[in-house]
């Protein structure tokens, strides 16, 4: 069994989000251990003084070894296949990574008496919602295997609580941007900020899909949160679990108001000093005009708040990209 001074295992801790969680843990005086197969993460993102095991959560022997060697206090489960669009083309791979991976992890946790889990879930569990503000009670209707796999992950945690007394919470969020450390950046080939920066670096203009939505400037409004704020919420959830305090099964980490695609393009131009005149394209099928989540419940329990402006989100992401030499 673990003690409060034991480390937290961060699966996917070499990835963009996981590496920020590791830094937030250590900054809070909570030791960390990383398990990551580097399928999308980078070993260089893991601080030199943090133990790192290169393995997949599907590797039961490796997970057993980490839990046994480090007597962890709990698990922050960030590892997973995170590309919603690609998941439609690769559903079996998505379910293997996100559902079988969760089962393998939970089985190992039960064997080692590890009773705390913070799950990096997703607002994709809600699907294409038609409400002004998503709350934790908004009906779940995922529209991709990725969203479905995250919802199943939440169900597995719920059922394991009943069966084995697991204490857990799931953090749901939409678009994570920015950087809390110039050494760690978003390298996803599917996310908006890297796509915009790539276009500008190659002398192209980014694209806006749809300019006739019923929003203030006609472009889609989405929820963007800074990765460092997100990481702090994971740490707060871990602390709450360690302290044995009441915790909700899930929290939305949302801005409450959101920003438009046009506002992002304007912020990129201002921060980078590069003229941005986006290509204007028709709407993409299925894109709702606005998806924004309330963070009120997380603010109450996890100290959640938006600590960064849009300009700061863009500037930190741009700084990390330039620091990488990309």
TrEMBL record:
Enzyme Commission number, as recorded: 5.1.3.2
Example GO biological process: galactose catabolic process via UDP-galactose, Leloir pathway
Stated name of the protein: UDP-glucose 4-epimerase
Listed GO MF terms: UDP-glucose 4-epimerase activity
Cofactor dependence: NAD(+)
Matching Pfam families: Epimerase (PF01370)
Keywords: Carbohydrate metabolism, Isomerase, NAD
TM stretches of this protein: none
Organism: Microcella frigidaquae
Pathway listed: Carbohydrate metabolism; galactose metabolism
Reaction(s) the record says it catalyses: UDP-alpha-D-glucose = UDP-alpha-D-galactose
NAD-dependent epimerase/dehydratase domain mapped to chain residues: 8-254
Family affiliation: Belongs to the NAD(P)-dependent epimerase/dehydratase family.
Stored InterPro entries: Epimerase_deHydtase (IPR001509), NAD(P)-bd_dom_sf (IPR036291), UDP_G4E (IPR005886)
UniProt superkingdom: Bacteria
